[in-house]
## 1
Amino acid sequence: MLRKFINWFSKSEDGFEMQVQLPKDEEAKFILTVDKIRIGTLYCEKGEWYFKYADDFKNHSDEYNRIVGFPDLDKTYKSDSLWPFFQIRIPGLKQPAIQEIIEKEKIDQANEVALLKRFGEKTISNPYQLVMAV
């Protein structure tokens, strides 16, 4: 259902749906922070997304709210699709300015990881920062 909802807002101008997805062979790791506190790690491997809270956040969990959709501090969450909390970091791909960046930087607009790497660091919808792990 979520994928269908996302696709409604990602349709190309010629009517074909842009299939933004995680390639099966893609591996990446992102660190989620807020106020210099490491909240957790988002990573992907073998076609699956994973999220796990960091010990740093667990030590400050009385100061910050848990992320919606991730209530258990000790669980490693797994999904074959990117959770909405992270998905909203990827802008609408039909926007002319976004299309210009995609073309100029030769980004695969069907690759969820490539889009998250390029556009996912900040969002106006929350104060969290998402950066590639080094």
## 2
Amino acid sequence: MPQISPAALSDARIIAAYAIFAASYLVFALGKFPGMKIDRPGAAIIGAVLMVAVRIVSPAGALRAIDFTTIVLLFSMMLIVGNLRLVGFFEWITRLVLRWIKPVHLLPTVIVTCGVLSAFFVNDIICLVMVPIVLAVCRRMNVRPLPYLLAVATASNIGSVATITGNPQNMLIGSFSGIPYRFFIAHMAPIAAVGLLVDWAILHWLYVPHESPHPAVAQAIEEKPLQRAQLGKPAAVVAVVVAGFFAGVPPAMMAAIGAALLLITRTLEPRKLYQEVDWGLLVFFIGLFVIVEGAQNSGLVHDLLNLARPWNLQNSAVFTVATAVLGNIVSNVPAVMLLKSLVPGFANPHTAWLILAMASTLSGNLTITGSVANIIVVESAKPEVEIGFREYLRAGVPITLATLLIGWAWLAVVR
């Protein structure tokens, strides 16, 4: 069926599309609908259903709107990281840290570890995995956990900018743009590397010289026996998957092959692995695709982009700032979904796609609600550590401004 055009819709249906879009993005921005318990995934599904129910999007159009390449890539990476978690890969990293790292080296170690892992796996999942590990290490070393938790959030965001598989918005951009994995990492990895150095410098300046020993009594990490035999297969599969990415195999296909290989097992219960999948995030993506399709059919996206045209978004600095601001208003994934239809019309769409990936990711460090990764860190650390909005902002503002400037300057040079 052909795409529905705004001219084919009645005024009432266009008004309905605007209302559905506004209500959905309000929840995306706030996290919950005021006075109700509707969260982001719930709002995405409700909005998608309403877009179809009021015939702004046809049922067939809703299926076409869903980018299954992105969904498969995200789902497959969740399965791969979930398998690594279940077989004790991250606990093994913790033991290495405790064995070889002194407290004075803990901050750069956390930043490098989270940054590198987030470059190849989904940053949200890395945050979920690393928070309990960092808390346990801080207890063992008898240090205050706040700066190290901030390092988990900020470094995971910064490191994830390096590759298409680093975060959900990069997966979307990789699917929409068709940019090869190697091209993406060649242009974005330098931003991540310098950004991680800046992250360490700012957090060290803000916290480390003023740190005193944490008053809590140091605690030992529970020593579970490490099943080295179980680590062999996942490690080999991950190595093959990453090699496939660099060899030019489509990321979704390579990740799906890796996930399928890990499901062939005699030792790990598949049910436990399925529990590692963030089904809510997948639901959020599916609903968001349909909502944006409805916004396009109703002419809303066209109207929004017309409002932005006087700002000369083709200017890289303006586009960086606009993406960063929009990302902090509605969150980075919805911002990318809104701006994706604008980029192909730019004079240099390749550079614009990279700027969109860079700015939507790095701007997520500005506030707690700037990215899902930040929210995961703050919520997972409770009740042991309370990270307040102002406390996060103290680190988030200088880190965000510095890394955005670095990212914009680099992409302006290498274009």
